[in-house]
Write a structure and sequence with these properties.
two-stranded antiparallel sheet; 3 helices; Ubiquitin-like (UB roll)
Length: 177
Amino acid sequence: LSPDCSFTCHYRCRALVRLDCSGPPGAGDEDDGTEQALEKDTNVDEPSEWEKAELDQAQVEQRIKEYNSQINSNLFMSLNKDGSYTGFIKVQLKLVRPVSVPATKRVPSMQAGRPGPRTQAVKRRTSFYLPKGTVKHLHIFSHTRASEVIDALLRKFTVIDNPCKFALFERSEKDEQ
């Protein structure tokens, strides 16, 4: 990498990232030895979960029936006529940092002697930790993206933090579902 090329990356993912940073001629020719210091265990030879094949209509219908037969609540999935499906997901929040929510405080107006509203809103924020294990159920569609799920969760809790600071991780449970 040239000195003009900098990025932030998880140390295990660094070997998987390739950047085309063109710097001044001759820059980046020297080896600083950091390549040998990086961990090489990146599991690149294992098949990727992203390479899953698309299911046909019959397979989707069968999987929805199997899923609904195992559900202990009324959070079923439904197959629509157009081939899309809808259902509920259970999102368990395990945040390791505080979230910010709006906190409006009324303060006396500068024109306290005049009749009319004597207060004006001041934009403030309050930050706190959500309790670990907080659960929300969201109704989603088959075409719902992860970023839309994050946005919906932040709106439910009126969180004003940047959605890019959050990520979703999948976890499957058999008994607790």
